[in-house]
Amino acid sequence: MPASFEFPIPLFGLQGNQFAGRADIWKPVSFTEDELKQRGGRSYGVIGRLRSGVSSKQAQAELNTITANWIPRFKENYAVETGFGARVYGLQDQVVGGMRPALLILLGAVALVLLIACANLTTMLLARGGSREREMAIRVALGAGPMRLLRFLLIESVLLSVIGGVAGIVAAIWGLDVLTAVGAKTVPRLREVNLDATVLFLTFVISVATGILFGIAPAVASAKPELTEALKEGGRGTSSGARRNQLRNSLVVSEIALALVLLIGAGLLMKSFVHLQKVNPGFNPKNVVTAELSLPLLKYPRGKPVIDFYAEVLRRVSALPGVQTAAFTNVLPLSGSNTDNSFHIEGRNEMQTKVFPDEEIRSITPDYFRVLQTPLLRGRFFTEADNADAPGVVIINQAMAKKYWPGEDAVRKRINFGDSDPQKIKWFMVVGVVGDIHHQGLDVDPKPEFYLPHPQRAYRGMILAVRSGQDSRALISTLRKEIQSIDPDQPLANVRTLETVAGESIAPRRMSVALLGVFASIALLLAGVGIYGVISYLVVQRTHEIGVRMALGAQRQDVLRMVVGHALKLVGIGAVIGLVLALLSTRALAALLYSVSAFDLTTFLFVTITLAGVALLASYVPALRATRADPMIALSHNA
Fold this sequence. Notes:
52% helix, alpha+beta, single chain, 4-stranded antiparallel beta sheet, 639 residues, 3 domains
């Protein structure tokens, strides 16, 4: 495999960008004779390539037949109502499916920004065309035909688009490196993305095409000047000028509407992200460093050698300066990984009801909840006395207590893990109930979980979690040395802080919010520039009229009200259209929102008021300039 090869290991059955890790070393699957006799494990996934012409539905149908045959053959392991079986997933969907909605929304945001920019360009070209009306009239008077003027004006707009396109390509080359560095851990396969010739050519063609498309209207308007009026020194108020004004106003209304859609979308995502960050994860990630260890089977057979190694690691690590407490677990919070196990509850006949409980299981050492600072609600934590020879004990979370013992005290209830032989049944007593911990994501409600002491469910692969009173990153080199002093061949893998783990769990949302926020800010800026440009041109165009009004007794506030009122009228129309479009389009955001409605009234109002405020500010500057004009100078303007 090349050095750049990465194959994400999807957690089958989970949604979104959730992986068990990225493989660096590959080894063949092997089972002991006892393992081959067991049918309770579901920790493996099958990856296969379908034959040509075979659909996923056909493959699912065949698998349904296979799994249905297991039930009569292995009655002690399966029941019809449990729903256990095999489910077909597309690997592509497992790897990138979770990012598809966010990427499509961002693509839509890019399209909206492009439309707003093009509307702005058209508005400016119309204003420029109005100021060059005399020039165009002179060209026509000297013999230039309409088609020649049209070509001339289109070349100007296309030239602007070409220059902008080249600048955009340069920015994209630089920006892709930044985006890859920032988002490689967030967006699957982002490191594989590059700017190839096809992409560059397509974007360049779009750039030139927009220049032609949105330059046509200004070019057509300017290519047919009214010669008589345009050649007069004070020629004003022609029908072509009125048409230009109407078109400019329509474009500004469009900008306002599109910008409002983008701003509302960004506002909803930001509010959702704020709500998500306020969710109590069930633990305190600060000052906790984590590292993965995996003991080789030949060197550490099952049972006592594994238990003794991890116990010695904890003894030494806990004695290090600055370490408050340390523990092991087989699954980290918010890591997206999962392991589950079916069980029986004492006093309940699952065979009769054919409902076999199956919930998430964790193996931990005694101080695990102290490391996480997860509260104990009832009962007790594990102790060193809960060893392999002691009676079986289990700690459950609050979600499990509510689900299986509603209205009861779950402490001292007993479960076992499906031994059919009464002589071999080992009961595990619930000794404590702890607060819920988010494992699949902050936006996913905690599922029922139960925890066993590591000596009673020993795993060779465990994750060390160490809480210190200082910056936990300073402990990493010390931890490596301490563990290698126990076993020089034992490496630490995937060393990171628990804050990093928690941060990575919301990284896709953070990136979507950041990018959409950037696009919305650009849209807001463009809308403000568009308003400013139109009102500024309106002031210049109506300078003579303003002078007459002021000479006849109009006050400065009257002029200010007239100019700003025109701008607010455009904003009002654009806001109404934008709100309607937003109501229709924000449904697409529903999958990305947490604890926020796609029609959140507060966000809609706040964004509308903000946009109106920016438009008011953009129109106020040229309006203020109009009120300061000397009436005598204004009356003599182009007189």
